[in-house]
Amino acid sequence: MLDTYKTFAADCFAGRTVLITGAASGMGLETARAFASKGAEVVMADRDETGLDRYGGELRESGAKVHTVAVDVSNPESIDAMFSYCDANLRHLDNLVTCAAIITAKRIFEQDWAHWQRVHGVNLLGTFFTVQGAAKRMVENSSGGNIVCVASDAGVHGGGGLIADTAYAASKAGTLSIVKSVARELAGRKVRINALNPGPTDSPMHSHIEQSLKDRIAGNLPMRRMGRPDDMAASILFLCSDAASFVYGAALDTDGGSMFR
Ligand SMILES: NC(=O)c1ccc[n+]([C@@H]2O[C@H](COP(=O)([O-])OP(=O)(O)OC[C@H]3O[C@@H](n4cnc5c(N)ncnc54)[C@H](O)[C@@H]3O)[C@@H](O)[C@H]2O)c1
C-alpha cells in the first residue's frame, strides 16, 4: 500500500461502507484500494465489468471486504439496480464517491447535440441521480453519511478542446453546482457533501495523450508534476473522514496549484 495513506489510522473506516462509481480505473480504483486498506467495506461500481472482476478480485484476495456491481450511470434503471444491490448487501450506506465520467476533447464546431447528450448523460445526470439515490438512503440512516463528487479544475477554468472540451468542462461546472445545491437542501440532515477538484492527473483517462504533452502540462503546474490517483484518493479519504466533519458544500482543489495560477 502506498505511503500516501499512512496519515490515516489502519482501522479509521472499519465498520463503515463506501460505494464508489468509476471504481474499475484511475482515481476510483485507487480510492477503493485506499478505503479497503483502512478497513471499509467497499462496493466498486463501474460499467467495465472486466476491470471490476480483475481489481475487485485482487482486493478480495488481499483480505478486503469488496463487492463489485456493474452499472451504467447514464441509465437510471441501472443506477436503481446498483442501489438495490447496496440495500440487499450492506447494513447501510455510509459513504458515496462519484468518480464515473468520460472525458472528451472536441473543438467547438465539432460538438453536436448527440455529443453533449452523451457527455452530460454520464457526467452530469449520472452524478446527480447517483447522489440522489445515496442521499435518500443517508437521510434515513441515523448516522447520516458523506458524499464526495469528483468534479474537475476544468469545471472552474473551462476546457479549451485540447485535453478537455466545453461539454466536459460544463458537466464538471454542473457537478460543482450539484454539490452546492444538494448541500443547501440537505443542511441539518447529517449528510455531508463536498466536491474534489482534481488537476491534471496521470490516469488511464489520459492514456491517449502523448508523453510530450503530459510533460508540458506538468511543467506548467506550480508543483511541476501531474497528479497521481493516490493524491486524489488521499483527499477523498480526508473528506469522508471525521477530520473533515466541519467541511460542508466545499470544493477541495487537489491540483498541484493549477487553480492558484
Ligand atoms: N484524470 C484527470 O486528469 C482528471 C482531472 C480532473 C477530474 N477528473 C475526474 O476524475 C474522475 C476519475 O477520472 P480518472 O482519471 O480516474 O478516469 P478513468 O478513465 O481512469 O476512470 C473513469 C472510470 O469511469 C468509468 N465510467 C465511464 N463511464 C461510465 C458509465 N457510464 N457508468 C459507469 N462507469 C463509467 C470508466 O469505465 C472508468 O473505469 C472523473 O470524474 C474525471 O472526470 C480527472
From TrEMBL:
The keyword Oxidoreductase applies. It holds the Pfam family adh_short_C2. Keywords: Oxidoreductase. One of its GO terms (biological process) is fatty acid biosynthetic process. The keyword Lyase does not apply. Belongs to the short-chain dehydrogenases/reductases (SDR) family. This is SDR family oxidoreductase. It comes from Oryzicola mucosus.
